[in-house]
Amino acid sequence: MKIRFAKAAFRQLSRLERHIQKRITEKLDYYCSQDEPLNFAERLTDHRFGEWRFRIGEYRVLFDVEADEIVVLAVGHRREIYR
């Protein structure tokens, strides 16, 4: 699968500290290199934020799946991401 960032999600990621950015991007690359990346994800109950989420430490990556592409909608700390 490929990863595509929405403009807002890319902006959110770029505002994080460098070591956190690196951790998130490496983990996303790992998930997408697997046969079934959705095995690592959880389905969200409130679809305003997207269909799925990855948990990467204290950070969350909210995304939708379109064809063979993961579209990242939001990236943020778990305290702030669902607001």
Number of helices: 2
CATH class value:
Alpha Beta
pLDDT under 50 segments (min length 5)? Answer: none
Q: What is the helix/strand order?
A: EHHEEEE
Query: Class by helix and strand content?
Result: alpha+beta
* Strand line-up across the major sheet: 1-5-4-3-2
CATH architecture: 2-Layer Sandwich
- Estimated share of beta-strand residues: 25-35%
Q: Tell me the domain tally.
A: 1
Main pleated sheet: 5 strands, mixed
Radius of gyration from the CA trace?
12 Å
End-to-end separation in angstroms reads 28 Å
Overall residue-averaged pLDDT value: 95
Helix percentage range: 25-40%
Named CATH topology: YaeB-like fold
The general outline is globular
CATH superfamily: RelE-like
Number of strand segments: 5
Quick overview of this protein structure:
The chain has about 80 residues and is α+β, with helices and mostly antiparallel strands. About 30% of the residues lie in helices and about 35% in strands.
